[in-house]
Design a protein that fits this description.
single chain, 6 helices, globular, binds flavin mononucleotide
Length: about 190
Protein backbone atom coordinates (compact mmCIF):
# COMPACT_ATOMS: atom_id res chain seq x y z
CA UNK A 1 0.00 0.00 0.00
CA UNK A 2 1.48 3.36 -0.95
CA UNK A 3 1.13 6.46 1.19
CA UNK A 4 -1.75 7.93 -0.79
CA UNK A 5 -3.69 4.67 -0.52
CA UNK A 6 -3.07 4.63 3.22
CA UNK A 7 -4.32 8.22 3.52
CA UNK A 8 -7.38 7.51 1.39
CA UNK A 9 -8.41 4.27 3.14
CA UNK A 10 -7.66 5.20 6.77
CA UNK A 11 -10.70 5.64 9.01
CA UNK A 12 -11.11 6.17 12.72
CA UNK A 13 -11.92 2.71 14.03
CA UNK A 14 -14.09 2.41 17.15
CA UNK A 15 -14.81 -1.34 17.09
CA UNK A 16 -11.91 -3.75 17.38
CA UNK A 17 -11.43 -7.52 17.34
CA UNK A 18 -9.99 -8.91 20.59
CA UNK A 19 -7.02 -10.57 18.79
CA UNK A 20 -3.73 -9.55 20.40
CA UNK A 21 -1.12 -7.69 18.36
CA UNK A 22 2.39 -9.11 18.51
CA UNK A 23 4.99 -7.07 20.36
CA UNK A 24 7.27 -7.09 17.28
CA UNK A 25 4.49 -5.46 15.23
CA UNK A 26 4.08 -2.69 17.80
CA UNK A 27 7.84 -2.21 17.92
CA UNK A 28 7.97 -1.87 14.12
CA UNK A 29 5.09 0.61 14.24
CA UNK A 30 6.93 2.73 16.81
CA UNK A 31 10.16 2.54 14.83
CA UNK A 32 8.33 3.98 11.81
CA UNK A 33 6.53 6.55 13.99
CA UNK A 34 9.87 7.96 15.14
CA UNK A 35 10.76 8.74 11.50
CA UNK A 36 8.24 11.61 11.67
CA UNK A 37 9.64 15.13 11.27
CA UNK A 38 9.95 17.33 14.36
CA UNK A 39 10.99 20.92 14.96
CA UNK A 40 14.79 21.09 15.28
CA UNK A 41 14.65 17.28 15.22
CA UNK A 42 13.89 17.57 18.92
CA UNK A 43 11.65 14.48 18.85
CA UNK A 44 9.55 15.58 21.84
CA UNK A 45 7.57 12.32 21.83
CA UNK A 46 7.51 9.62 24.48
CA UNK A 47 5.30 6.57 24.15
CA UNK A 48 3.86 4.26 26.76
CA UNK A 49 2.35 1.05 25.38
CA UNK A 50 -0.43 -0.21 27.64
CA UNK A 51 -1.86 -3.72 27.23
CA UNK A 52 -3.53 -6.51 29.19
CA UNK A 53 -4.14 -6.00 32.93
CA UNK A 54 -2.36 -2.64 32.92
CA UNK A 55 -4.82 -1.37 30.30
CA UNK A 56 -7.77 -2.61 32.36
CA UNK A 57 -6.44 -0.93 35.49
CA UNK A 58 -5.71 2.33 33.69
CA UNK A 59 -9.14 2.41 32.04
CA UNK A 60 -10.80 1.74 35.41
CA UNK A 61 -9.25 5.00 36.57
CA UNK A 62 -10.41 6.80 33.43
CA UNK A 63 -13.90 5.37 34.01
CA UNK A 64 -13.75 6.81 37.56
CA UNK A 65 -13.13 10.24 36.06
CA UNK A 66 -16.07 9.75 33.67
CA UNK A 67 -18.45 8.63 36.44
CA UNK A 68 -17.40 11.54 38.65
CA UNK A 69 -17.97 14.01 35.79
CA UNK A 70 -21.40 12.54 35.07
CA UNK A 71 -22.35 12.73 38.78
CA UNK A 72 -21.33 16.40 38.83
CA UNK A 73 -22.92 17.30 35.50
CA UNK A 74 -19.53 18.23 34.05
CA UNK A 75 -18.92 17.95 30.30
CA UNK A 76 -17.51 14.61 29.18
CA UNK A 77 -17.29 15.10 25.40
CA UNK A 78 -17.08 11.74 23.67
CA UNK A 79 -15.19 10.13 26.58
CA UNK A 80 -17.75 7.35 27.09
CA UNK A 81 -17.45 6.20 23.46
CA UNK A 82 -13.66 6.58 23.49
CA UNK A 83 -13.47 4.49 26.66
CA UNK A 84 -15.41 1.72 24.94
CA UNK A 85 -13.00 1.77 21.98
CA UNK A 86 -9.97 1.78 24.32
CA UNK A 87 -11.41 -1.23 26.17
CA UNK A 88 -11.96 -3.17 22.95
CA UNK A 89 -8.63 -2.47 21.27
CA UNK A 90 -5.85 -4.75 22.56
CA UNK A 91 -3.22 -2.00 22.49
CA UNK A 92 -3.31 1.56 23.80
CA UNK A 93 -0.37 3.83 23.08
CA UNK A 94 -0.17 6.92 25.28
CA UNK A 95 1.65 9.83 23.65
CA UNK A 96 3.51 12.32 25.84
CA UNK A 97 5.45 15.52 25.25
CA UNK A 98 8.72 15.15 27.12
CA UNK A 99 10.16 18.59 26.38
CA UNK A 100 9.91 21.05 29.25
CA UNK A 101 8.91 24.67 28.61
CA UNK A 102 9.91 25.88 32.06
CA UNK A 103 11.94 29.08 32.13
CA UNK A 104 10.52 30.43 28.85
CA UNK A 105 8.66 33.73 28.80
CA UNK A 106 4.89 33.44 28.38
CA UNK A 107 5.05 34.33 24.68
CA UNK A 108 7.80 31.84 23.88
CA UNK A 109 6.20 29.21 26.05
CA UNK A 110 3.08 29.40 23.89
CA UNK A 111 5.11 29.31 20.66
CA UNK A 112 7.04 26.28 21.95
CA UNK A 113 3.78 24.60 22.93
CA UNK A 114 2.47 25.09 19.37
CA UNK A 115 5.69 23.85 17.81
CA UNK A 116 5.91 20.74 20.01
CA UNK A 117 2.25 20.01 19.40
CA UNK A 118 2.87 20.06 15.64
CA UNK A 119 5.79 17.64 16.00
CA UNK A 120 3.65 15.33 18.12
CA UNK A 121 0.76 15.54 15.63
CA UNK A 122 3.17 14.58 12.85
CA UNK A 123 4.25 11.54 14.87
CA UNK A 124 0.69 10.47 15.59
CA UNK A 125 -0.38 10.79 11.96
CA UNK A 126 2.73 8.86 10.89
CA UNK A 127 1.71 6.13 13.34
CA UNK A 128 -1.85 6.04 11.97
CA UNK A 129 -0.73 5.77 8.35
CA UNK A 130 1.90 3.14 9.11
CA UNK A 131 -0.71 1.13 11.05
CA UNK A 132 -3.11 1.42 8.11
CA UNK A 133 -0.54 0.01 5.72
CA UNK A 134 0.12 -2.83 8.22
CA UNK A 135 -3.59 -3.77 8.24
CA UNK A 136 -4.23 -2.35 11.72
CA UNK A 137 -7.11 -0.12 12.77
CA UNK A 138 -6.49 2.97 14.89
CA UNK A 139 -8.32 5.64 16.84
CA UNK A 140 -6.61 8.94 17.72
CA UNK A 141 -8.03 9.89 21.13
CA UNK A 142 -7.81 13.24 22.89
CA UNK A 143 -10.66 12.39 25.30
CA UNK A 144 -7.91 10.93 27.52
CA UNK A 145 -7.09 14.54 28.40
CA UNK A 146 -10.15 14.51 30.69
CA UNK A 147 -8.11 12.11 32.82
CA UNK A 148 -4.64 13.65 32.42
CA UNK A 149 -3.80 13.64 36.13
CA UNK A 150 -4.97 10.09 36.70
CA UNK A 151 -3.11 8.77 33.64
CA UNK A 152 0.15 10.61 34.41
CA UNK A 153 0.01 9.39 37.99
CA UNK A 154 -0.66 5.78 36.87
CA UNK A 155 2.29 5.94 34.46
CA UNK A 156 4.32 7.86 37.06
CA UNK A 157 5.55 10.55 34.70
CA UNK A 158 5.97 14.31 34.70
CA UNK A 159 5.75 14.37 30.90
CA UNK A 160 2.63 15.99 29.40
CA UNK A 161 -0.08 13.71 28.11
CA UNK A 162 -0.95 14.73 24.54
CA UNK A 163 -3.19 11.96 23.20
CA UNK A 164 -3.66 8.21 23.02
CA UNK A 165 -3.98 5.86 20.08
CA UNK A 166 -6.01 2.66 20.25
CA UNK A 167 -4.71 -0.05 17.96
CA UNK A 168 -6.04 -3.46 16.94
CA UNK A 169 -7.61 -5.41 14.13
CA UNK A 170 -10.63 -3.47 12.88
CA UNK A 171 -14.08 -4.98 13.47
CA UNK A 172 -15.85 -2.40 11.31
CA UNK A 173 -15.37 -0.72 7.93
CA UNK A 174 -16.76 2.80 8.33
CA UNK A 175 -17.64 4.86 5.30
CA UNK A 176 -15.46 7.91 4.73
CA UNK A 177 -16.47 10.82 6.94
CA UNK A 178 -17.30 14.00 5.07
CA UNK A 179 -14.62 16.54 4.31
CA UNK A 180 -14.82 20.16 3.21
CA UNK A 181 -13.76 20.44 -0.43
CA UNK A 182 -10.12 21.54 -0.71
CA UNK A 183 -11.29 24.44 -2.87
CA UNK A 184 -13.48 25.69 -0.01
CA UNK A 185 -10.55 25.87 2.37
CA UNK A 186 -7.88 27.12 -0.02
CA UNK A 187 -7.01 30.54 -1.42
CA UNK A 188 -4.53 31.06 -4.23
CA UNK A 189 -2.59 34.32 -4.33
CA UNK A 190 -0.52 35.13 -7.37
C1 LIG B 1 -6.57 15.59 17.49
C2 LIG B 1 -7.64 14.53 17.35
C3 LIG B 1 -8.32 14.12 18.47
C4 LIG B 1 -9.32 13.14 18.36
N1 LIG B 1 -9.92 12.68 19.50
C5 LIG B 1 -10.87 11.74 19.41
C6 LIG B 1 -11.48 11.21 20.58
O1 LIG B 1 -11.12 11.57 21.71
N2 LIG B 1 -12.44 10.27 20.45
C7 LIG B 1 -12.84 9.81 19.21
O2 LIG B 1 -13.72 8.95 19.14
N3 LIG B 1 -12.26 10.28 18.07
C8 LIG B 1 -11.28 11.21 18.15
N4 LIG B 1 -10.67 11.65 17.00
C9 LIG B 1 -11.06 11.10 15.69
C10 LIG B 1 -11.92 12.08 14.89
O3 LIG B 1 -13.22 12.11 15.42
C11 LIG B 1 -11.91 11.64 13.40
O4 LIG B 1 -10.60 11.71 12.91
C12 LIG B 1 -12.82 12.52 12.54
O5 LIG B 1 -14.17 12.40 12.92
C13 LIG B 1 -12.70 12.15 11.06
O6 LIG B 1 -12.99 10.78 10.86
P1 LIG B 1 -11.92 9.80 10.17
O7 LIG B 1 -10.71 9.75 11.06
O8 LIG B 1 -12.59 8.44 10.08
O9 LIG B 1 -11.58 10.36 8.82
C14 LIG B 1 -9.66 12.60 17.09
C15 LIG B 1 -8.94 13.03 15.95
C16 LIG B 1 -7.94 13.97 16.09
C17 LIG B 1 -7.14 14.37 14.86
Amino acid sequence: MNVIEAIETRRSIRRFKPDPIERTVIEKLLEITTLAPSAKNEQPWRFVVVEGMAKEELLERVDGVLQNAIANNWPTGSLRGSLQAMRQAPVLILVFNSVSRSGLSERFEYAKFLVDTQSLGAAIQTMLLAAQSMGLGTLWICDVLYATQEICSYVDTNDELVAAVSIGLPAESPLPRPRKAWSEVTTFLD
